[in-house]
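=== RUN LOG ===
request id: a7f3
mode: sequence -> structure
chains: 1
length: 128
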Amino acid sequence: MAILTLPPLIRPRLALKQVIDNVAETQSNIANTRLDTRKFVFVMATVVTLNLLVIAGINILMTQDAFTLQRLKSERNTALDAKDAILNRVNQMNSPVNLARVAQDMGMVPASKIEYLNFSQLSEVTTP
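=== RESULT ===
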């Protein structure tokens, strides 16, 4: 067993060599880790960029729909205004004053007595 133990002078040299080897391995591991970190950062930056582009695309589509909706509302309001104008014109033409004036212009006069139509007499008159 005494042979397996190293003398005190050799042990520090061996320990120093092991430390140097460990430092070299650690440095290579750190270089690999940095490379892996760069890859990870690149992948994460790509994912974030793609997410931002998707969100911007959705925002653009929603904005276009908002413009379309605004245009359709404007057209609806214009159509409702035209409808109201037509209904006002019809109401003016159907007013009793205007109907009486148009009847007088056509030569119509008020009836002196009321007579009802008798369809049986009409069919006899029209039949030869």
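=== NOTES ===
The radius of gyration is 51 Å.
The mean pLDDT is 80.
=== END ===
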